[in-house]
Amino acid sequence: MAGVFDFKKEYRDLYSSKTTPSLIDVAEMVFIKVDGKGKGEAL
């Protein structure tokens, strides 16, 4: 199983607060969605 990816640590410049408003460029990101039925903790 893959490790946890922390977006706030990897993309610190996107998530950190600034003293003045500014425009930023956000790179395209790929996400995965898992859909199903039943209890998530049941195996």
Short description:
By secondary structure, the protein is mainly α.
Number of helices: 2
**Helix and strand sequence:** HH
Indicate the proportion of strand residues. Answer: under 5%
Number of strands: 0
By helix and strand content, what is the structural category? mainly alpha
C-alpha geometry: elongated
Largest sheet: none
Helix content: 10-25%
SSE map:
Blueprint (H helix, E strand, L loop, with lengths): L6 H4 L1 H4 L28
Mind explaining what this structure looks like?
- The protein has 43 residues and is mainly alpha-helical.
- The chain is 19% helix and 0% strand.
- It is elongated, with a radius of gyration of 16 Å.
- The mean pLDDT is 80.
Main traits of this protein?
0% strand; mainly alpha; 43 residues; 2 helices
